[in-house]
Structure prediction request, 656 residues.
Amino acid sequence: MSRDHLQSTERPAGEAGAPAGDADVPVSAAVETPFLELLARGASADAYEQPVLLARAEGGPAGRIDALDRAKQLALRVRSELEGRRRREAELSALFETAHDLAGLRDLDAVLRAIVQRARSLLGTDVTYLSLHDADRGDTYMRVTEGSVAARFQQLRLGMGEGLGGLVAQTARPYVTDDYFKDARFQHTRTIDAGVSDEGLVAILGVPLMLGHHVIGVLFAADRRARVFEREQIALLGSFAALAAAAIDTANLLAETRSALAGLERANEIIGDRSAVIERASDVHDRLTELVLRGGGVHDVAAAVSQVLDGTVEFTEAVSAPAGALEVSRAEGHAVRHEDDWIAAVAAGDELLGALVLRGHPGLDPVDQLTLERAATVTSLLLLARRSAAEAEQRVRGELLDDLLDARDRDPRLLGDRARRLRADLAATHVVLAARLDTAASDADQEADARRRLWAAASHLAATRHGLAAARDGGTVLLLPLDAGDGATDLARRTARHLGRAVHESVTVGASAPVEDLAARPAAVAAAYTEARRCLDALGLLGRSGDGAAAEDFGFLGLLLAGEQDVPGFVERTIGQVVAYDERRGTELLHTLDAYFACGMSPARTKDELHVHVNTVAQRLERVGRLLGDDWQSPDRALEIQLALRLHRLSLPARH
Prediction:
């Protein structure tokens, strides 16, 4: 109240005669002082009645009591104003702190918990809680509670329109009830009512959390007793709800930002990985290209990929690779894992040429897998190129051998040049071999396929041995150089075994006697081939399928098989060591042999024929056995030796 008003009020009492003791103290000051003291110490509202009651008890003038009563009313108004300002200050401080928390948002749950705690403190309620909208389920659920003690209440879910919170979420407007269970404005459900009853709530205030025009949740303040919420309290809770909505929005934005940043980081990682992939792919491409250009082979590709993959890569034939994994790799066109290895099929269309196998490397990233697959593709191209080149070379080798067999009037110089381009030396000693499959095919197609396989195997053998091969007379003919210390028989047998393994069938090979200087003597090749064919036919007649032999292996029958009737060669092979022994020592071993066979192989009659002691005959025959072998008296050997002795006598100059 104003001082002038107090003075005008107190003046009549002074005129009526104030106490002498109060003459020096202004009446207004005497009236205001006790109330100022009460304001200063923040006394309760009840304490402001004391000065008025005391004046009445003392029987003070009516004017003074009225003045004290008016001063009391003014003091209470001032007290109320001060309390309102303090309350607003606390509210603003709480809102400011909440805004500060929101500005430094790190944990959404922590910010929402602080909002609920401050709302409970400022509104002085028993419980505050916040529910959020679940877009997937179409209802709201409890997110944060403060002051709650009931577990069922803390787990409540409110459908749209159910309970006070459901009504707030549905209408996007604040709702307040003084007595929840008696309020019929919203839909009661057994579940919600049970939760509210467990918590013991009576008065509830709910305000919506808004983002734009959308309700994302509800903020509640509730008491366990009947209570009327004032407009200021509703507005304050609405301010907290706005901050809570802003916090949620900020958190969502931060989450989206983090997600976007994570996406950018992942994209950057992918770009980095792709860059590394491109660099590695470029490196592999450069290595393989350089390898192919310098004429590298399949095993060179495997070695290069081994370095890139930091493992052991091997090329294997199709029959040596795991059949299941190899077929899957061929069908899918990708490398597949087999136990701790990786298998990449090397194929050309439907034909399996082999496989690249990465050993003991179970963990293989997609880039390395692609590298292995690319290497398999390069390997298949190399094999196809090599095959094409080999087939072309085989045709050239076959054409040269055909010319040696058929065109006897070819220029020897041109034949030699052609042979040198194929890394064949016609001046070296060679053997002509005739090879034939022993197994009869069930139909013409199978027979033709078997012959092609035999020709391919023979051509490969000829190329590796610097010889020639051609398909001829239903089989294959080979012209192979004869190594020093080697014989035609050994070469024929090795060739039969090699070709048999290559085609997985029995192959019989007949060989000619060694021939020399083929470029100058082209006709010798045709004659040697005729001899090899005769040996091949003889092997068949003798039941020696799958074997190899030369004319020298058939004894005197070889004379009939040999194209040039090599009588000196037969004599040399059969009794040459005995002839040489007689010539060196001046002995009579040949003469003894003639007598021994003429006497029916009887030592007793032989000693009479020779006029020597029987021991002398025995000693001479023992020497023959050491020179010709222990089986020299077997029927076959004995027949050959007798024929050789007769041919040797016929070859000697006539005696006059």
Q: What stands out?
A: The first strand starts at residue 127 and ends at 134. Residues 1-25 have pLDDT under 50 and may be disordered.
